[in-house]
Amino acid sequence: MNIISFATAETEWSVPRPGIILTHAGRDTRYRLDCQRLFDPSDHPLNPLSWFDLDGRWLQKVRAVFDSIERDESVLEQAQAKGWVMPARDAYWFAPVPRPGKLICIGLNYRDHAKEANLPVPENPVLFSKFSSAVIAPGEPVVIPAVSRKVDYEAELAVVIGRRAKKVSADRAYDYVLGYTAFNDVTARDFQFADGQWQRGKSCDTFAPMGQAIVTTDAIPDPHKLAIKLTLNGEIMQDSNTDQLIFSVPRLIEFISQSITLEPGDVIATGTPSGVGFARKPPVFLKPGDEMEVLIEGLGSLGNPVIAEQEN
């Protein structure tokens, strides 16, 4: 199941709502299931992140309706008659989790990236965060701050949490995962290295492109066997595989949840492989007019243009 967040002219363009990409016999039907329309408006969850809760009745009903449509195409016609579906062409897509509760990132988590940076493999995961206000949708521009000259790209596999997780063991970790999506951990390296810590350089406005969809775990049997790439203006800059991860998805959930409670709608960006701009000789930094695309096997692509900050 592919979960998106979208808006239409019939709703409010600025207010995202959850949806599901409908398919039949493995092909896109060009329709989207509008999750909110399955419920009376008075019955929508107060917290938008509750739509991502595997234990919540909202997602459970959505899954049941989706499965019915997938099994029997005639159910799609019934759903259309009830107003539950809409043509894909009428939707504007947001990031699949437009405003995560927590956006937790992992530093130096690929063996090939540690090698290119000439740094030792860490003994434990290196955690940092990005402000959730940095999240943008596929196709939206990454804005280079006027005061930065060294903005970099980082293709990453992101994990979306679907169940409250506290002190979860690695062997049970997948029970707490809703699915996976593509992520670009855009970073102002000059801020990062000058500050001595990473928050400002990682959290500039627009520095967290995400999407296009959350692909649920049933469609991704093993997140550690996925090709991951980033292209810049059509040229491959990063080309690796998630089998290069130092700390696996279960290990990350175990480590984080020992001291931080994970909740539905939290996002963990699992780190980036080799090929980042600052480690190249000569270095490659983003400039206005560039086009980035993250491609992860089974998850599709995440493309974003780059523009300069406009002066007030």
Percent range for β-strand residues = 25-35%
Overall form = globular
Order of helices and strands: EEEHHEEEHEEEEEEEHHEEEHEEE
Structural class: alpha+beta
Q: Which ranges are low-confidence, i.e. pLDDT below 50, for 5 or more consecutive residues? A: none
| Secondary structure: helix percent | 10-25%
Q: Total number of helical segments?
A: 6
Tell me the span between the first and last alpha carbons.
43 Å
| Sheet of most strands | 12 strands, mixed
What is the arithmetic mean of pLDDT? 94
Strand count: 19
Q: Radius of gyration over alpha carbons?
A: 19 Å
Report on this structure.
The structure is a single chain. By secondary structure, the chain is of the alpha+beta class. 16% of the residues lie in helices and 32% in strands. The chain has helices spanning 57-71, 73-81, 111-116, 189-195, 199-202, 249-257, and strands spanning 2-7, 17-24, 27-34, 85-87, 92-93, 103-107, 126-129, 135-136, 142-144, 151-152, 155-161, 177-184, 187-188, 208-216, 227-232, 235-241, 267-269, 291-296, 300-308. The strands form 3 sheets. Strands 1, 2, 3, 4, 5, 6, 7, 8, 11, 12, 14 and 17 form a 12-stranded mixed beta sheet that branches. Strands 9-19-18-15-16 form a 5-stranded mixed beta sheet, with no helix packed on it. A hairpin with a 2-residue loop joins β2 (17-24) and β3. α1 (57-71) packs across α2. The radius of gyration is 19 Å and the shape is globular. The relative contact order is 0.19. The model has no long low-confidence stretch (mean pLDDT 94).
